[in-house]
Amino acid sequence: MPAPDDAxxxxxxxxxxxxxxxRRASREGFGTSVTHGQFRVLRTLDNADQPLRLSxxxxxxxxxxxxxxxxxDDLEAAGLVERQPDPNDRRATLVDLTPAGRQxxxxxxxxxxxxxxxQLSRLTNADQQxxxxxxxxxxxx
Length: 141
Prior knowledge:
Layout: H1 4-26, H2 36-48, E1 52-53, H3 54-61, H4 65-77, E2 81-86, E3 89-97, H5 99-120, H6 125-140
Antiparallel strand pairs: 1-3, 2-3
GO molecular function: DNA binding; DNA-binding transcription factor activity
InterPro entries: HTH_MarR-typ, MarR/SlyA-like, Tscrpt_reg_MarR-type_CS, WH-like_DNA-bd_sf, WH_DNA-bd_sf
Protein name: DNA-binding MarR family transcriptional regulator
């Protein structure tokens, strides 16, 4: 049995490898056109179900507003998001997904799911339920 520190390092390395594989596979067909940070922005806007102010988007992502502005600039240039004036505050700007942004997000999610299904196919249903249980315990911590 590995020492606790060795187990921690081994688990961290395995999780990093799985996450890298997921990120790489979800972008399949898009090359480097969509970064992980951009994917997070697209996903956050989609989950909001309404346009968000840049400051609210930054808060939900846990980043500074300037960083959110830079990512939104790149996504807007790619035609994946659009800025629009806030009807309730002339000084504020709202950000929303474009139809192209929704489509690429759908494709990224589909790719990510397919890769995970392939990985999980090596586990029995019982193993998958155990994995879900253990990951949930770690996530709740």
